[in-house]
Amino acid sequence: MALVENVRHTPTEPALQISQATTVAYWRKTSGLMWTMLVIWLVAGFAVHLFAPSLNAIHVLGFPLGFYMAAQGSLIIFVLQLFWFAKAQNRIDEEFGVAEE
Q1: Burial class (CB in 10 A: 0-12, 13-18, 19+), 9
Q2: Residue 63 lies in a domain
Q3: From 79's CA, which of 8, 33, 36, 63 has a CA 20 to 30 Å away?
Q4: Contact (CB, 8 A) for 67 and 61
Q5: 63 vs 27, 36, 84, CA distance in Å?
Q6: Domains contained in the chain, number
């Protein structure tokens, strides 16, 4: 008796037929969003910290900005970035008719 049976899964809905031009346009928008997110991540994760000593002259809530960005600012930016990415990607998916239910 086999633990895993050889069962073929047949999808209940037919696969979407998308033209090559639509696929290229979809990937261009998705790729652009990805690169935008990567640049924001690099700036918030690395570039701000490289300039932390010069940012320490500015104070936010009583803390030097360099310390604030290293301790909490970058994390807040990353979380907001995740939500923004999900919303923007869903918008792109809906625009091209490939959104999930």
Answers
A1: exposed
A2: yes
A3: 63
A4: no
A5: 42, 29, 27
A6: 1
